[in-house]
Amino acid sequence: MSTRSTQEAFQRVLGVTPMQYVQQHRMERVRADLLEVDPATTTFAQVARRWGYLHVGRFSGAYRARFGEFPRDSLHR
């Protein structure tokens, strides 16, 4: 199976591209971590970097678009 065929099948079955799937999974894992860590000892930027988000501003915007709140708000829940 070619790369393109694999990508098309992925899109057809899951409704997203392989890259979108990976990005969504990473964002879900960041959220899970933010809700579990101690906000007294961990910042949302540390959690974001742990998952490969190096630009905190862009990450924060993408997080808010996905979950409707800023990552710092999730951290302090």
UniProtKB/TrEMBL annotation:
Gene3D superfamilies: Homeodomain-like. This is HTH araC/xylS-type domain-containing protein. SMART domains: HTH_ARAC (SM00342). InterPro entries: HTH_AraC, PchR_regulatory_protein. GO terms for molecular function: DNA-binding transcription factor activity; sequence-specific DNA binding. Residues 1-77 form the HTH araC/xylS-type domain. It comes from the Bacteria. It holds the Pfam family HTH_18.
